[in-house]
Specification:
- The complex is a heterodimer of chains A (361) and B (299).
- Chain A has a domain of 227 residues.
- The longest helix of chain A is centred in the C-terminal third of the chain and has 27 residues.
- Chain A is 72% helix and 3% strand.
- Chain A is mainly alpha-helical.
- Chain A contains 16 helices and four strands.
- In chain A, the strands form two sheets. Chain A has a two-stranded antiparallel ribbon. A two-stranded antiparallel ribbon of chain A has the order 2-3.
- Chain B is mainly alpha-helical and 299 residues long.
- Chain B has a domain of 209 residues.
- Chain B is built from eleven helices and two strands; from the N terminus they run ααααββααααααα.
- In chain B, α2 packs across α8, α2 packs across α9 and α9 packs parallel to α11.
- Chain B starts with a helix and ends in a 14-residue tail after the last helix.
- The mean pLDDT of chain B is 84.
- Classes of the chains: A mainly alpha (361), B mainly alpha (299).
């Protein structure tokens, strides 16, 4: 069976885009992604921005759950920390957004490492419960201090571009602006900023899987005792996974805050954590590609279902909030029962079919 | 003293609910190695079907029995339809699956019973038992604690002495060996989920009666606050989870009163997170729980 070109050198094995097909795919993908904001309507552009936030968040969870095998239901907590750090920094000190995002990541990392220290001795279901507890603790702490979470439970988020902008000047960022020959409105600007962040994060995560640090995480995931016996330090690998994952999640939370312009503590609940876990499971656990595909599929399907659901039999009669939830639950359950590797598994099947063509296998 | 007695009664009745929920969790975990995140919805099904059954004119004990059976049947159905095909799959797949089953069950409940809050009337009314001085405990609270303890005692007796119980214990120790010895593992798993669902249904009725009116949230909250009891008690020990359930119930009632005022802003609504705080403190000392086994791992 022709699988791929014979790899004779280690450098070839490590290449991100080893053959022509990968390069063609890269080019096509780039073209689509760059032209997307000029093609589509405003509501679909919002969906695109959501998808980019979801990609970053899902990659963050993938590092922890997919690479290091640590189940987390507390992902929303890190998102919340990133979001509120961004909001508070912008409100208090008019910190520009490109500094807010990594700052949110840094605060989330601090919490993530602290949580990781507890989680080191736990695995599987215990960890799921402890991270769930973390989610409740973070939400409770944020709600307890209105200076952090805003009065009345909502906090507005400013997006400052440079230092020393006044809140009134900051408003300009939401206007349409010309950058050389291109005129971009607010959503399009946001799209390109998010695109850069998402590409950087996905690239970093992909590189992580090719590096020593990532391989120790996977060794710990597959069998931590065996990994320890082979000289991998499981404590370090797990802590690194927690730190990386919570940093990325913090950045995603900050992006979410910038996009929404108002954040509430209630938004970051178990439902959000579950959605992120569903994304990486749908996409295919253990690969960056899976996180990206899962996030995009999840967000786009969500939008499609919102428009489709009212016209479907039975489901259309449910209250609107429930329609998508029900459709999604059914979809996720069916995918998990049929194809445990998710979209990545489907992709592998398609790829194998064409590689082996005209034979069946 | 008056305060302490009344708080203790409230704590024990809350602890009884936690114990019922936590016992169900841990029994399901021992049998199927699945953490059933749809457990909170079973509570809701118990509570909401109770309102319908009472409205249909059934006497209280009969309605309770039917509501419990219904919750049990749903649990067994979930096991058969969703959990059993997942045997041998990674843990997070089963976690996700039960979480989404929970979403579906919640939708189902909203379709059947709507979103309006409902009420279950106590069969004892407002009657209270005077204990000492001003302290009085309602018969309702006493009955809740009594029924919960009875139900759990019955469950443990069944686990210890009946054929089914022996089969359940054998299955939770090693499914393959149990199967080889002729124990119908599938049926035992179904029965385990059924019994856990019944306990959850009972807890759901109690949780609903905690307030004059209850909605979909109030039963879920009880279930999510019962999670820590499972960890504190030890995931592998049903007795431990029951003890931890009562303990957490008592602590949750006492802590906001005696500890909350000293914590400033964080102490406000302390009961929302207190079980989790206790759990995290506990994990630092005994990660395997009160009576749980230390995990021995083999390569």
């Amino acid at each position: 069976m022709p699988t791929r070109k014979l790899v004779t050198r280690y450098e070839d094995d490590l290449r991100l885009f080893p053959d022509l097909w990968h390069k063609v795919g890269l080019g096509l993908g780039l073209a689509i992604v760059l032209l997307f904001p000029f093609w589509v309507s405003a509501s679909w552009l919002t969906v695109g921005n959501h998808a980019l936030v979801a990609i970053v968040g899902a990659v963050g969870l993938m590092v922890l759950t997919g690479f290091a095998g640590q189940i987390s239901l507390g992902h929303a907590a890190f998102l919340a920390i990133g979001a509120f750090t961004t909001a508070v920094l912008g409100e208090r000190w008019q910190v520009p957004f490109w500094l807010c995002l990594p700052a949110g990541g840094a605060v989330a990392t601090a919490v993530g490492v602290a949580a990781g220290l507890f989680a080191l001795r736990l695995r599987g279901l215990y960890l799921a419960i402890v991270t769930l507890g973390l989610l409740y603790l973070v939400a409770h702490t944020l709600e307890s201090y209105p200076s952090l979470s805003g009065t009345g439970g909502a906090k507005s988020v400013g997006m400052y571009v440079t230092f020393g902008q006044s809140p009134a000047e900051m408003r300009d960022v939401y206007e349409k602006m010309a950058y050389g020959p291109v005129i971009l409105d607010w959503d399009q600007k946001l799209y390109f900023i998010f695109l850069v962040v998402a590409v950087l994060v996905a690239w970093a995560a992909r590189n992580l899987t090719r590096s020593n640090a990532g391989r120790t995480m996977m060794a710990v995931r597959d069998q931590d005792l065996a990994a320890a016996a082979l000289g991998v330090n499981p404590v370090r690998a797990k802590l690194l996974a927690f730190a990386t994952s919570s940093f990325i999640a913090g950045v995603a939370g900050g992006m979410f805050a910038l996009q929404q312009r108002t954040v509430t503590v209630e938004y970051f609940n178990l439902q959000i954590s579950v959605e992120y876990v569903a994304m990486i499971v749908l996409g295919g656990i253990g690969t960056v590609w899976g996180a990206v595909a899962g996030a995009v599929a999840f967000v786009i399907l969500g939008k499609l279902m919102q428009t489709l659901a009212p016209s479907l039999p039975y489901i259309g009669q449910l209250p609107t909030g429930l329609q998508t939830a029900v459709l999604f639950s059914i979809l996720v359950i069916v995918v998990l029962v049929i194809e445990p590797l998710g979209l990545f598994g489907l992709w592998l099947r398609v790829k194998r079919y064409f590689l082996a063509w005209p034979f069946r296998y | 003293m008056t305060d302490v007695i009344m708080l203790a009664a409230a704590g024990l009745s809350l602890g009884a609910m936690y114990a019922l929920v936590a016992l169900g969790f841990s029994v399901i975990y021992r049998a199927s190695r699945v953490f059933n995140f749809a457990h909170g919805e079973l509570l809701g099904i118990g509570a909401f079907s109770m309102t319908s059954l009472l409205a249909a004119g059934l006497p209280w004990p009969a309605a309770l029995a039917v509501a419990m059976t219904l919750a049990g049947l749903i649990a067994a159905g979930v096991e058969r339809a969703v959990v059993r095909p997942m045997i041998g799959r990674p843990v997070f797949v089963t976690i996700i699956l039960t979480l989404f089953v929970a979403l579906l069950l919640r939708a189902l409940m909203i379709v059947i019973w709507g979103v309006q809050p409902r009420a279950i009337e106590s069969p004892f009314g407002e009657a209270e038992l005077a204990v000492s001085g001003d302290a009085a405990i309602s018969y309702q609270t006493l009955a809740q604690i009594g029924v919960a303890v009875l139900a759990m005692a019955a469950f443990f007796a069944l686990l210890k002495y009946s054929r089914l119980g022996i089969g359940m214990r054998a299955t939770s120790t090693d499914q393959e060996v149990a199967q080889a010895l002729g124990i119908p593992v599938g049926r035992v798993l179904g029965a385990t989920w059924f019994l856990a669902g019944m306990l959850a249904g009972l807890a759901g009725v109690f949780a609903a009666m905690k307030h004059a009116m209850f909605g979909h949230e109030s039963t879920l909250i009880i279930a999510f606050r019962a999670f820590p009891a499972v960890i504190v008690g030890g995931l592998t020990s049903p007795v431990g989870t029951v003890i931890a359930g009562f303990l957490l119930g008592l602590l949750e009632i006492f802590a906001p009163v005696y500890l909350g005022p000293h914590l400033g802003g964080f102490g406000h609504n302390l009961q929302n997170v207190f079980p989790y705080v206790i759990m995290i403190l506990f994990l630092m000392v005994r990660p395997y729980g009160l009576l749980g086994q230390r995990d021995v791992e083999r390569l």
